[in-house]
Specification:
By secondary structure, the protein is of the alpha+beta class. 53% of the residues lie in helices and 16% in strands. Strand 3 and strand 4 form a beta hairpin. It is elongated.
Length: 191
């Protein structure tokens, strides 16, 4: 039995083991050279496959990003023709929902002290369950620093945030909730 490295430069991608079962076989130098050539070709093929898979993954990610850009461009175009704030929010929420994207939309007052939830795309059953778990109505609800400590964290983030990053803060805000209810809420909002 002989084992040769599937290597290219310093990168090891595996090993090629060759032998005969049940008997002893001695390989000569020519066979070893041939085997090393096969191993070298296999290494190149493996690395090319990895490069192709990586390129395919990047192409898929780019296609997904382009799809999202297109979706949001379509939503923005529909919003431009609406003039009143509530109509803009309702239009944006409906358009996102039509594209299969759940959302909630809120606006901050001019003083930056109150955040008002103006739209939630959840269906009535999901909305009622969220309201029950949180103990707060979700539609047209005004959130301030005093009644919603998470408000400060959400507002100070000027870039996109993943709600799952706020999960520990949500748990602190709802300390009286049992873990099952909190888990259910976080599952409902995809945390």
């Amino acid at each position: 039995t002989i084992s040769v490295c599937l290597c290219r430069g310093d990168q090891v991608v595996g090993r090629l083991n060759v032998g005969t079962l049940g008997s002893t076989r001695h390989f000569n130098d020519d066979e070893l050279a041939l085997l090393q050539g096969v191993a070298d070709q296999a290494t190149v093929a493996i690395q090319n496959t990895w490069l192709f898979e990586d390129s395919q993954r990047q192409a898929d990610e780019l296609a997904h990003a382009n799809q999202i850009i297109t979706i949001f461009s379509q939503v923005a175009a529909r919003i431009e023709v609406v003039s009143q704030l509530d109509n803009i929010i309702e239009t944006m929420g409906r358009e996102l929902k039509a594209l299969g994207i759940d959302s909630s939309l809120a606006t901050l007052d001019a003083d930056g002290q109150v955040l008002t939830i103006r739209y939630v795309s959840a269906n009535a059953r999901e909305l009622a369950a969220m309201e029950e778990i949180v103990g707060l109505p979700m539609g047209n609800y005004k959130l301030s620093y005093e009644n919603f400590p998470l408000f400060a964290e959400v507002i100070k983030q000027k870039q996109a945030i993943f709600i799952r990053e706020l999960a520990p803060l949500i748990a602190d805000i709802l300390p009286d909730s049992d873990n099952q209810l909190l888990s259910r809420l976080m599952q409902m909002v995809n945390i």
